[in-house]
Amino acid sequence: MNLFEQFQRLANAYFLFLLLLQVLPFRAFSTEYFISFSGEPLGLASTMTQQRLAPSPASAGEAGSQDLLYFLNIFLYDFRKGTKMIIKSTIVLFCFSHRILLWEVLGYLILLLTVFADSYSVLSDLLLNEKLKAQKIMIVTDKWMNVQVGDIIKLENNQIVTADILLLSSSEPYSLTYIETAELDGETNLKVKQAISVTSEMEDNLKLLSAFDGEVRCESPNNKLDRFTGILMYKGKNYILNHDRLILRGCVIRNTDWCYGLVIFTGPDTKVMQNSGKSTFKRTHIDHLMNVLVLWIFLFLGSMCFLLAVGHYIWENNQGYYFQDYLPWKDYVSSSAFSAALIFWSYFIILNTMVPISLYVSVEIIRLGNSFYINWDQKMFYEPKNTPAQARTTTLNEELGQVKYVFSDKTGTLTQNIMIFNKCSINGTFYELYYEIVNSLVMISGHKAHSSKKVDFSYNNLADPKFSFYDKTLVEAVKKGDHWVHLFFLSLSLCHTVISEEKVEGELVYQAQSPDEGALVTAARNFGFVFRSRTSETIMVVEMGKTRVYQLLAILDFSNVRKRMSVVVRTPENRILLFCKGADTILCQLLHPSCRSLQDITMDHLDDFASDGLRTLMVAYRELDSAFFQDWSKKHSEACLSLENRENEISTVCEEIERDLMLLGATAIEDKLQDGVPETILTLNKAKIKIWVLTGDKQETAVNIAYACNIFEDEMDEIFIVEGNNDETVGRELRSAREKMKPDSLLESDPVNSYLATKPQPPFKIPEEVPSGSYGLIITGYSLAHALEGNLELELLRTACMCKGVICCRMTPLQKAQVVELVKKYKRAVTLAIGDGANDVSMIKVAHIGVGISGQEGMQAMLSSDYALSQFRYLQRLLLVHGRWSYNRMCKFLSYFFYKNFAFTLVHVWYAFYSGFSAQTVYDTWFITFYNLVYTSLPVLGLSLFDQDVNETWSLRFPELYEPGQHNLYFNKKEFVKCLLHGIYSSFVLYFIPMGTVFNSECKDGKEISDYQSFSLIVQTSLLCVVTMQITLETTYWTMISHVFTWGSLGFYFCILFFLYSDGLCLLFPDVFQFLGVARNTLNLPQMWLCVVLSIILCMLPVVGYQFLKPLFWPVSVDQIIDRIHHCMRHPLPYPVRTKLKHTASRRSAYAFSHKQGFGALITSGKTMKVRFPKRNSFPHKR
Q1: φ/ψ (deg, to 5) at 609
Q2: Binding residue per annotation — 695?
Q3: Does the annotation flag 410 for ligand binding?
Q4: What percent of the chain is predicted at pLDDT more than 90?
Q5: Which residues contact residue 346 at a Cβ distance below 8 angstroms, ignoring those fewer than 6 apart?
Q6: Are 646 and 639 in contact (CB under 8 A)?
Q7: 558 is in an annotated binding site
Q8: What's the pTM?
């Protein structure tokens, strides 16, 4: 596999072909120096790339056999230690001594070892079983990799589930187990699993658990996270298994001391791994372009060699006969045609430097250097966690400068998984709890407070010590005993389904099914109304230090239809109160008419909450008559027992009691974003980067975050919601949305429709479509399942790509990957996926670039990513600074490298017309060896590692500079042709200017200077000066290192020139150093320096002229931005002050809109009580 990946880069095949060509037995002319030069860098280039994959051979010739032996060693290593080394050594020695191919014995070997392994495994199991019988049963701690199907494992509180397990028993009553599924669907609220009664009886009895001999028959491994079907056959009876009995890998055990489970699926068979996708070796768009260019160069090289071989054939027939006295060839060459064939391959070797191996070695060094810049960037270092940014690969740096689509998870990526009780309105009074410290003063509601002293909560011993609060107004109202304030916080401490856990006296831990509920109950706790504990019939609340127990009479739970929740309690004073909280659009219809004026004031406050993107709830209460409640309770019991339309009847009964409510106030909760997320998304939008949110969370929560993050804006023309349940409905909704955005898109005359009508072979690129306004799209996972099938995927793509923001909610991990793959397939744009959980691994692997956030959901996403960040806000710096610099540097490097090698190589072509097409080289052999290795390597590395068109400040201030990379403007096929033409022109000048200058020229002493060695020195010196001046024109950011690399390399050339052409070396090694005294004599000639000056002027003149005329006649947007930057540098402007972005619409957001079901039924059933009942009552045996 490693060898296959290496030859995905066509240049490696090209280099291997040249290497094989040079070791052929014939030696057409003097080409010995190319053998030593081409062989070693091939191994170096391969090794540098393979270090990222696996251990590999050092040279391409040994790659096949060693990779096969490596596979064989790994295969044998998995067998028992007693025999593995003997078998491996024997097989390898046998194959090499008898010259038998490994492929011929591999099949027999695998068959033999499989039989041996099976027999050994059966024997080991028998011995192990006998050994276990004699030993005491105990729990053994082991690694995840050793967990096997059929094992019974123990999990404790806050532990991650290691495999898909069938829940057998737990520490909780009725074997309930609370889990958090943030790794799977991004939701932080708790979910409940329950074991079947027949296994829950075993509890934590190791003897009973070890004797468990049930048999599970279930579905085969699949990626359906919300489905499971199976049967447990135990004690002669069958028990139906469903998703509620299964705990999936990646979940976290919460609020449960311990639980035991039977392993059903492990490793790649688990549902989360079935959704994770396959790992592939990622290559950049430039790598794919390089494959095409190498093929072009190969064809160009072949055609040039063919023409030169034809020229040699003609020359040999017409002129070669006269040179046989000097170059006898009858004993070696039979005919002119055979000589031309040899010349073809000789020129193929001589001209191979058009794609030198040093190109790929330099590319790897540049990528490595730019990766270090990312790792060393202090501005992407997250101090709270002491975590730097990390480039986990070195192959994708320039791809960071070409991203067009960003696919982001929500929970833990955009948000912090933290809910904050931010503001509230109580009886018409507005309270703002949010605070911000600025220069040691506290800003509350936009005004300076009198001091920065925290509010003293010493009156509440159960308050959270981490809670900091500076506005004394609300606290003073609580202390004064304000009736409405007390009633408001009492409602928050009673109206919920939160479960309290107090392992240490005074240290309360709340486990809520929704994080919003947890935030509300925590707020009430801090203000003196502490929810302490509950049973199925009571709720204990500590009110301002006094413990009070309320009798729980009924819980009317949330549903996605009701959008509200109520509790009915009896106070210690024997009053019956109903407390209700829910969406204001629902509760306003249930209020008593006397609350009209208070309702108007509260609605104004809710508008303010909504403008800040906060999640709102309205709170109300009602005092009930005892007789009325008794009558209602009977109706409610009858509705709960009804067999038909039970939900509708319950809803009707609930409406009878949830009316004529008295308004208490409203709450505002902030789903706290990570720092800088809105600003980051705004900046990325300016860079023409489209951001799609792919989340497993609820629609309402995702949309709320989209508004808070500036993905959606209130000024948008329309936001489309696709929620159909079949192909026809989904297709109709998508077409309707597309018609509103671009009415002509449904006509046959539309360019895209005309293109699709031709039925192009997939994969094809769908052109960009421009909408008539600003739009957003929301689509659920259920609708997405239909949209990703058949012809609807193109409808989905065309509609989504015209939208400014796209929200996909309730998605499975596999659907995330499918959406990313859809954009990759038909848009041909660079995609980036960013997430922090195991449910994001699949899209991170599929995207061109995967970024993992080291957040609260584990390390799976980070370990599967290409780049690791601690905060989402660092993404703008990763793309707009490091990505853009890397792309610009790589493009400059490739353009310059191809140019300098075309100019260097094609001089041989012009020289062929004057040397009888004899495959002789223009340059000294040492110059050919050192040209790419020494003379021109450091200047181009300095350009590629240190160059900046603008600094990081301007890169972030003008995100529009990022756009050229998205369209690949700086290096493409057109730019490559320009480099080729420029190289051809420069080679022409570099050959004919020295030729015309020294032809028939004489020194001062009358001696001719038109000898081969002097001419060679003049040409190579002119070439080196020209390419050095070319790189000075390309460099826009000069550092001391750049100066040393550029001018130092040129100076080093002249120093080594005198050394290589010195009398001592030439006399000691006359066969190796043949240019005796040439440097000393030639550098004194005025003709030589005239050639250098003329060559520089003629070669640089077109470049300077093009750079001057391009902004005038072919301007691009980037040129205008650069001009603006230069103007700003001359006339500095104040940096724009960041202001908090507010939403102007009165849009409401709350978990009441999407909350499906709470823990109400579970609480009233008594199953959450910590008291154990006798087993015969709790778990009756089936008869």
Answers
A1: -60, -45
A2: yes
A3: yes
A4: 32
A5: 28, 29, 31, 919
A6: yes
A7: yes
A8: 0.76
Amino acid sitting at position 905: T
pLDDT, tens digit, for every residue of 571-621?
Answer: 999 999 999 998 888 888 899 999 999 999 999 998 888 777 788 889 999
Instruction: Tell whether the model's pLDDT for residue 673 goes beyond 60.
Output: yes
AA letter at 965? G
Task: For residue 17, give both structure tokens.
Answer: 């072909």
Greater confidence, 961 or 71?
961
Tell me whether residue 52 is annotated as binding.
Answer: no
Question: Using CA atoms, how far apart are residues 786 and 573, in angstroms rounded to an integer?
Answer: 57
**DSSP secondary structure of 225-281:** TT---EEEEETTEEEEE-GGGEE-TT-EEES-SEEEEEEEE-GGGSHHHHTS-----
Question: What integer pLDDT is reported at residue 72 of this predicted model?
Answer: 39
Pick the most confident of 36-40, 170-174, 649-653, 885-889: 885-889
Same domain, 520 and 605: yes
**Average pLDDT of the chain to the nearest whole number:** 79
Cβ atoms within 10 Å, residue 457: 18
Q: Indicate if 689 and 668 belong to the same structural domain.
A: no
Structural domains of the chain, count: 4
Question: pLDDT at position 223, please?
Answer: 82
Question: Final residue of a domain: which of 224, 243, 276?
Answer: 276
| Helix (H), strand (E), coil (C) string for 151-185 | CEEEEECCCECCCEEEEEEECCHHHEEEEECHHHH
Helices (H), 828-883: 841-846, 860-863, 874-877
816 annotated ligand binder: yes
320 has pLDDT over 80: no
Question: Which pLDDT belongs to residue 998?
Answer: 79
Show which of 872, 889, 918 is a domain's final residue: 872
Residue 528: CATH number of its domain: 3.40.1110.10
Query: Is 615 labelled a binding residue?
Result: yes
The 10 Å CB-count burial string (b at 16+, else e) for 44-57 is bbbebbbeeeeebb
DSSP state string for 27-64:
--SS-HHHHHHHHHHHHHHHHHHHTTTS---SSGGGHH
* Whether the Cβ atoms of residue 230 and residue 167 lie closer than 8 Å to each other: no
Does residue 634 have a known ligand-binding role? no
409 flagged as catalytic: yes
Q: Please give the DSSP secondary-structure letter assigned to residue 809.
A: E
Is residue 867 domain-shared with residue 902, that is, in the same domain? no
Query: Is 58 domain-assigned?
Result: no
Rounded mean pLDDT, 62-83: 38
CATH of the domain at 783: 3.40.50.1000
Catalytic residue among 67, 164, 185, 409: 409
997 is in an annotated binding site: no
Return the pLDDT at 453: 60
1084 and 966 in one domain? yes
The reply to whether 211 falls in a domain is yes
Structure tokens at 821: 């793959």
Residue 979 lies in a domain: yes
The reply, when asked if residue 675 is annotated as ligand binding, is no
CB neighbour burial string for 510-544, b if at least 16 within 10 angstroms, e if fewer: bbbbbbbbbbbbbbbbbbbbbbbbbeeeebebbeb
Question: Which sign, positive or negative, has the C-alpha torsion 1018, 1019, 1020, 1024?
Answer: positive
- Per the structure, the complete domain to which residue 1087 belongs is given by 881-1114
Q: What is the pLDDT of residues 286-316, one digit of tens each?
A: 888 888 888 898 899 999 999 999 998 888 8
Q: Are residues 599 and 718 in the same domain?
A: no
Looking at the fold, whether 862 and 947 belong to one and the same domain comes out as no
Q: Is residue 303 part of a domain?
A: no
The tokens for 770 are 């421009």
The answer to whether residues 638 and 544 belong to one domain is: yes
Residue matched to tokens 């709270």: 384
